[in-house]
Every structure is written in structure tokens, then in C-alpha cells.
Amino acid sequence: MYTTELQKGAAPAAIANEPRALIDAFEARIAEDAFIEPKDWMPEAYRRTLIRQISQHAHSEVVGMLPEGNWITRAPSLRRKAVLLAKVQDEGGHGLYLYCAAETLGASRGEMIDALHSGRAKYSTIFNYPTLTWADIGAIGWLVDGAAIMNQVPLQRASYGPYARAMVRVCKEESFHQRQGYEIMMVLAKGTDEQRAMAQDALDRWWWPALMMFGPPDDNSPNSEQSMRWRIKRDSNDALRQKFVDVSVPQADYLGLTIPDPDLAWNEARGQYDYGAIDWDEFYAVVAGEGPVAKERIEARRKAWDDNAWVRDAAAAHEARRAARKAA
Ligand code: FAQ
Fold this sequence. Notes:
Order of helices and strands: HHHHHHHHHHEEHHH
Bound molecules: Phenylacetyl coenzyme A
Helix content: 55-70%
Strand order of the largest sheet: 1-2
Distance between the termini: 42 Å
């Protein structure tokens, strides 16, 4: 995540010396659910919070290409290969829309990428787990894209216009991704004993990390209160996590697979599922960079950046020549 001195800890509600009249006008726009646009005045803390969240989101999309990209050459058929290739390309596109949205707030692409490569910036914990079998590609589509949609649908109404609009297209594509993953799981779950076991094993390994994608519990989420007041976040981490559990359990039942949680039970009074304790120590360890394949992920991103420097140089040289021709 793009982290500056200001961003350490929870976002302050306002920075000293910002004109009261401008803050009041900004808050009135938030209260009436109007979008804040790049040229509108906004509190510095709102701008920094958005850069933090949007750049983290962009990094997650781009690092998120790696676990599935790992299976493109090993997809079991030409059709699966073409579909997976398209999905991974979509994720790259999502990263680009999001970097552009963050740039409208004054962050530079170079600074954001540098923050990722130097370990100052976070990206979703989920992408620090390895993809061991083909069933993992099904589980990622079903659960990881499923969790991403649950979190991102409300972001289509985030108060910052460019972020909200980027989310509309992202959600449409994530919805296709979720279905392709679930379809892989359906084929495996109705296949041979070995295929069913592979599907169950993938569910066993991805279930808990998918629940962690929603972030820490509400009572330990330093940014939620302010982000919800600014209508960047519309729902709390726990509320979205619960919704995800509630839609996923019947989907697992349909597949004939078992969610790896002995405490999972329908709670008639709440009209929701109760679920077991999440291992928050594991979450914080992965956030801190100790995920099973965290080092490989960042190494792969750095290598891609360095190996492809010539593309950026060529594009810049082309643009300089075009500008010079135009000036002449
Ligand atoms: N991993 O106070 P909160 C995808 C950090 S996209 C790592 O609750 P906030 C598509 C958090 O940043 C997946 N860090 O924070 C795809 C904060 O750090 P800070 C990404 C996490 O921002 C699918 C600290 O903990 N989606 O999957 C995580 O209010 C398949 C305290 O947390 C988005 O980024 C985590 N899981 O709420 C691609 C959605 N959770 O800055 C390829 C947009 C929390 O204080 C294949 N983001 N942290 O040092 C959001 O909705 C929010 O930023 C949350 C966190 C909900 C993630």
C-alpha cells in the first residue's frame, strides 16, 4: 500500500489549517451522495486514504496475475488455456484502471510501483499462497474472485468518482471470473475420485485465506470508521465477510464439497451462518510479508519491471519524437 508519514496508523479526519468552508462544502457533497471528482477540493487525508486503498487494490490485481499465470501453460485443454489467459489479462487491465484512478489524485505511477517493489506498499494477503494443482485455479475463481466481487460491488458507489466508475467494469469482469472458477470446480467435483479429492483439497487450502481478504475484524480495523464516514467503504469488513460466507456455503453444498470449518452452522435466529475463528495471527504474519510465497511474488514483479524497462524507454522515446515533430 502507498504509505506516507501521514498514512501511518488510522487516517486523521482532517489536517490542521484546511479551510472550514471547504471542508463543510466537501462534507455536504458526501452527505448528499454526490461523487467527488479529481478537480474538486478534498481534504488531504481523504486524498491520502484513497491513494492508499486504490494503489493497494491496483497492486493486488497485478500481483494477483501471478498465481494463475503460473497455470496458463499447464491448463488441461486449449479452451481452458484461452479462458485462463483472458482472465489473467483482465486482472492486468483492472490494475491499469486502478493505477490511473490513483494518478488522478496526484500519485505517480513510478512512486506507487516503487512502494510495491520496496515492500512499503501492501497488496492482498491472498496472493501470497501457492497454486499447487489445477483445482486451485477453480478455487481462486470461485472463492477469490467471489470475495473480490463481494467487496467491490459496494465500491461502485464509493464517493470518489474515478474509483467508483472503474469498479463498474471490474465487477462485470470479476463476475465472469467467478463463474469460470465455479465451473472448473463443478467439473472436478463431478469427476473421478481423484478429481473430487483435488477439488476438496483446494477448498481446504483457500477457504480461510479467502475469508481474510476482507481485512481485520471491525473492532481491529483502524481505517474503517473514517472510510465509512467518507463513504469510500459502504460496508464493514465483517459485514462483507458474513455475506460471503452466506452465499458460499450453498455453493459448496451444491458441489458436494465440505467447507473446512467444524463450527460452521446455520443460525436460525440471525438468519446467517455462524463460522469458526479466523487465525488472525496467520493474517498479520502474511500482511507483514511472511506469506508462503511472498518473496517469490515480489521478486517476480521486480524482474518483470526490470526486464521490460526497454518497453517503457521505447514508448517514451516514441512520444518524445512525436512531440518534437508536432512542435516543428
Ligand atoms: N491483505 O483498517 P483496515 C482481487 C491492511 S482484488 C493485505 O480494515 P481498509 C481481484 C489494510 O490495508 C483484492 N492487507 O483497512 C483478483 C490496512 O493497512 P494500513 C484486493 C490488508 O483499507 C482476483 C490494515 O490492514 N481488493 O482479489 C488486508 O479500511 C483473483 C488495516 O485494515 C481490494 O484491495 C488484506 N487482505 O480495509 C485478482 C479492494 N486487509 O494501510 C486476481 C479494495 C486489510 O493501515 C485474481 N480495498 N489489510 O497499513 C478495500 O476494500 C480495503 O482496503 C480492505 C481493507 C477491505 C481490503
